Amino acid sequence: MGQAARRRAAAARRRTTGEISVRDAAPGEGQRVRHLLDRHIGGEESEEAAERIDRPNKRNDGLWIQLVAERDGLIVGALTAGDIFSKPHIRQQSAAAAMIGRHAEIINLVVHPEARGQRLGRRLMDEAERRYVDAGYQLFSGEFIARRPHLRAYYEDAGFTVGKPGRPVVIVFGAEMVSPLEPHDDACLIWKVVRTGPTVVDFSSVPAAEGTRLVEQAILEAQADARVEGS
């Protein structure tokens, strides 16, 4: 048997043997996760993911979740999710502290090709979402590269709404905070309301003027509700 055939046979055995467990990443595993990200999704923000695994951040920037999927001692999947407050353009806003504990985002998600087709990415997302819901978060978001159109159906199947490439959405959290989400030019935003509270205005589905009106309407309604609750 040639070397290439032996590699294919070994890969086939790995696909069919061994249970895959999902757990928190442990300090010291950061570079293994970074290698997986760099090799299979281009390494976007992989350095920060590795840093947060090996040197957990103690700043007050919300809940961060670093999950790995492991089979037979090998890391075959990983997910990094964090509080939106960690983003500089959010944190610099005057009312940004009101965002902590409300909105989390998927920063990266990767599954090794030999472990695909087993809904492993969904397991990782579901576990992260469950933890954020338990912690009281209201919104879960992320983005994907638009040139991978099959991911639209993938995320819609997971319960997310998917925006159009390069188009923003605005999240209104009551009367306290308005959070714009701006995707990369070649990316689509995804979002899911996991607890009642926020209003999402999708600027990819309405003209800009109509989107602005809907944001203003959501703020006015939230202010009215706050006055009623305080009376």
Give unreliable regions as ranges.
12-16
Strand order of the largest sheet: 1-2-3-4-5-9-6
Query: What's the N-to-C terminus distance?
Result: 80 Å
Number of strands: 10
Task: Give the overall form.
Answer: globular
**What structural class do you assign from the helix and strand content?**
alpha+beta
Outline the fold blueprint:
Blueprint: H1 3-16, E1 21-24, H2 30-41, H3 46-54, E2 65-71, E3 74-83, H4 88-91, E4 103-111, H5 120-134, E5 139-145, H6 150-157, E6 161-162, E7 169-173, E8 177-181, E9 187-193, E10 198-202, H7 208-230
Parallel strand pairs: 4-5
Antiparallel strand pairs: 1-2, 2-3, 3-4, 5-9, 6-9, 7-8, 7-10
Helix pairs in contact: 2-3
Walk me through what this model shows:
With 231 residues, the chain is of the alpha+beta class. Helices cover 37% and strands 26% of the residues. It has seven helices and ten strands. The strands form two sheets. It has a seven-stranded mixed beta sheet, sandwiched between helices. A hairpin with a 3-residue loop joins strand 7 (169-173) and strand 8 (177-181). It is globular.
